[in-house]
């Protein structure tokens, strides 16, 4: 069994659901177990483990935050029933890669908290706090579906911006590709598409499903359904990506016309103009339809992220040391995207043969994951 397969087998069962997907929400039992695994891996390598006051975990070879350190790593948390590679692959690969780098190199490994935003609703929460892009008070007040706040889950007020980030020489996050463009085992990221989430509240009038005449209804589900179709059509027309997910219906009964339907539009596009046009069009059409349905629509932009263009010389340097590895964009958000505004940052992608991600079917071959470890070791050695 390869060293990758052996280490992978240690974490594979943690947080796996009957669906074969993972329920690894930030600071819940499975993710806390993965943090214990992280600490154990660090201690077998005599690495110092620190937590930055925001829930981000770090393992350091040498002094924590020592000037000139190269930082790698990713996240443990998953979307509901997500795949096992999205996030953890970057952390498992980091521990295996550091074993292949000269011992005198200053390298750190990070496990960022709440990257998916699957529990508290803000993606890359940990890296946003670390870089000062998220207000600690606001973060502490974010609540999950059970009303537990991030501050309670963390057990303290998040610290916010960490000045020592300025000491970090470079960041390299390894991640499974969440698409099907990569035809070689390893690639290098050029950019992250602009993307964001828009909360859409469709307000109507709750009423009896059986006795209310169709002409008297103000059914928000109708406006919602129209909006889902409009988003899909706009995306197809403009080559963008649009999804409406995480739908909440109140009251959620078979025999009651809902009073409120809440859903999140996740929209992404290769450029900001296309993204803006898509969102504007969808909101315009949905608002028009609401007028016809006698409902109202309130749209709240959340965690809208501008395009991330990774450091070009760094990406080209990585591609060169990896024997001309392809350089390609991604539509997925990453902690590396948040950090790239503060430290020279790069990403390595490991081939995803089906391109499927955020699904139990997400998979990468052991051979490609091993190639990813070798590539990460090469890059960490080169940069440090
Ligand atoms: O949703 C994303 O873009 C990433 O997988 N967090
Ligand atoms: Mn993800
Ligand atoms: Mn991820
Ligand atoms: Mn990420």
UniProtKB/TrEMBL annotation:
User: What is stated as this protein's family in its record?
Assistant: Belongs to the peptidase M20 family.
State the superkingdom.
Bacteria
Q: Which organism is it from?
A: Actinoplanes couchii
* Keyword annotations: Hydrolase
What is the name attached to this protein's record? Zn-dependent hydrolase
| Entry-linked Gene3D superfamilies | 3.30.70.360, Zn peptidases (3.40.630.10)
Any single GO molecular-function term of the entry would be: hydrolase activity
Q: Which Pfam families match?
A: Peptidase_M20
Q: What is the lineage of its organism?
A: Bacteria, Bacillati, Actinomycetota, Actinomycetes, Micromonosporales
What InterPro entries does UniProt report for this protein, alphabetically? Amidase_Cbmase, Bact_exopeptidase_dim_dom, Peptidase_M20
